[in-house]
């Protein structure tokens, strides 16, 4: 009995390289995602360079904070991503532990059952089939005992196979648990590294703020800087809108090309079906002509029975076959632009239903004068540093980077040339290309970009033109 259990255990052992393979797979997935993001970052960097290449101010104090503020944003985003991954891994570990307990109980029960069967067989003398056949006993009893022995053997085989499978599942469960724990240790180490980096960058930014405080204060009051900031943001929004429209045109062209290919394929299939139908008609004509040339059979006597019909004869008027051809014209209309559908409906239908991205004090309203400078194009909501900023509607992130005058800035496209803009953030928690839903946390409020107060700058634009967000939010 012991050797059978040992054999089952040995058969269930998986390859030892499985743990290393899982870690490698995780690394590959991360590298692929980073490569895709790097490609997108390259395009956005080129866009930023194109917008800022006409800038004349090269000594803006806020620019000195750019690297530090970007690093703080990246570290915060990484910590948030690692926290989510940690929660998922811990939940996976809990599920694996529960499954391990269930498998262990099943294996223990099967081992006890197998031990009982082997013990019974041993007590019965372990009489084999040959001895039974040569015993000279009653043939009916021999046949009955042989059937009984067959049933027992089959039950033992099934039980042993099930035990092997469960032992293999236990070992695989233990391997997966070890891999999950390794992932958790790796995540914990990455969190420690990111926290250390975050503290270092925060200290660096605090030192720079102290050194540049007077310069920042004077530059904030300069009308030219404010105007350039507005022009820079407007140029960015216009460029992004242009890129989005170009992408939509490319997608529409691809859909039209696919529709034409499908239509051409349908026409080719219809033509082939017509050719096959013509060939069948010609074959039937040839067969009817051949039958017409044969001599007529003699008239049978009146009292003779009618012979069966010729099985090879073909009906001159066959029933019409079910048409298998497709219509020459593709009846399916090309799919419409699904951008609004993917975002849960048109953005303009949400007028009066939006909620502000965060709770705080509204210290600047749309249209109010900024000292001697231009009017506010959006709202500034004062809030504590780190306050969660939420997307006001479903959309796709098209920009998430640092921009002079607005610090860590995130822009969400909602379709039909509607965009929402969130500026002066401490951290950007989403990347370009991410799909976000209404209420998703996309950033943490702050005072990046040289802003005096901590909070959020918020705009809504349509076709590049800013309008009052308060006309779109609910007061409930």
TrEMBL record:
Q: Which InterPro entries match?
A: Cell_wall_metabolism_enzyme (IPR050570), Dup_hybrid_motif (IPR011055), M23ase_b-sheet_dom (IPR016047)
Q: Which Pfam families match?
A: Peptidase_M23
* This protein's name: Murein hydrolase activator EnvC family protein
M23ase beta-sheet core domain residues are 376-469
Which controlled-vocabulary keywords does the entry list?
Answer: Coiled coil, Hydrolase, Signal
Q: Write out the ranges of the annotated region (Disordered).
A: 252-344
Composition bias (Basic and acidic residues) maps to 252-262, 273-288
Q: Annotated Gene Ontology MF terms?
A: hydrolase activity
Source species of the chain: Paraherbaspirillum soli
- Composition-biased stretches, type Low complexity, lie in 263-272
Q: Which residues form a coiled coil?
A: 23-113
């Amino acid at each position: 009995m012991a050797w059978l259990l040992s054999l089952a255990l040995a058969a269930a052992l998986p390859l030892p390289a499985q743990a290393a393979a899982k870690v490698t797979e995780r690394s590959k997935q991360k590298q692929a995602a980073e490569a895709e993001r790097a490609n997108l970052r390259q395009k956005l960097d080129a866009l930023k360079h194109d917008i800022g290449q006409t800038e004349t101010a090269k000594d803006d104090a806020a620019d000195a904070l750019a690297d530090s503020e970007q690093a703080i944003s990246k570290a915060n985003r990484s910590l948030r991503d690692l926290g989510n991954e940690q929660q998922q891994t811990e939940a996976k570990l809990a599920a694996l532990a529960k499954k391990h307990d269930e498998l262990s109980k099943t294996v223990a029960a099967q081992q006890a059952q197998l031990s009982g069967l082997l013990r019974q067989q041993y007590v019965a003398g372990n009489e084999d089939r040959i001895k039974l056949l040569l015993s000279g006993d009653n043939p009916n009893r021999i046949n009955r005992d042989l059937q009984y022995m067959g049933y027992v053997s089959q039950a033992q085989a099934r039980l042993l196979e099930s035990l092997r499978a469960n032992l293999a599942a236990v070992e695989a469960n233990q391997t997966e648990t070890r891999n999950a724990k390794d992932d958790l240790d790796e995540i914990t180490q990455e969190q420690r590294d990111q926290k250390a980096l975050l503290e270092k960058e925060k200290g660096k930014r605090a030192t720079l703020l102290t050194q540049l405080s007077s310069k920042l204060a004077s530059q904030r009051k300069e009308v030219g800087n404010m105007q350039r900031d507005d022009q820079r943001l407007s140029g960015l929004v216009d460029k992004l809108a242009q890129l989005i429209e170009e992408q939509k045109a490319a997608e529409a062209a691809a859909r039209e090309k696919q529709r034409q290919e499908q239509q051409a394929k349908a026409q080719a299939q219809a033509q082939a079906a017509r050719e096959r139908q013509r060939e069948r008609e010609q074959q039937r004509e040839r067969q009817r002509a051949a039958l017409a040339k044969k001599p007529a059979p003699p008239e049978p006597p009146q009292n003779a029975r009618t012979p069966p019909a010729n099985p090879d004869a073909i009906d001159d008027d066959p029933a019409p076959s079910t048409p298998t051809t497709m219509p020459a014209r593709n009846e399916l209309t090309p799919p419409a632009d699904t951008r609004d559908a993917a975002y849960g409906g048109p953005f303009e239908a949400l007028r009066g239903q939006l909620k502000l991205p965060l709770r705080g004090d509204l210290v600047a309203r749309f249209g109010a004068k900024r000292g001697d400078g231009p009017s506010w194009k959006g709202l500034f909501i004062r809030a504590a540093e780190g306050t969660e900023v939420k997307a006001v509607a479903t959309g796709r992130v098209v920009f998430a980077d640092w921009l002079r005058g607005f610090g860590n800035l995130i822009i969400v496209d909602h379709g039909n040339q509607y965009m929402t803009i969130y500026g002066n953030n401490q951290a950007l928690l989403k990347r370009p290309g991410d799909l976000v839903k209404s209420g998703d946390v996309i950033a943490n409020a702050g005072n990046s970009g040289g802003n005096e107060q901590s909070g959020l700058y918020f705009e809504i634009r349509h076709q590049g033109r800013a309008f009052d967000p308060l006309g779109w939010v609910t007061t409930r």
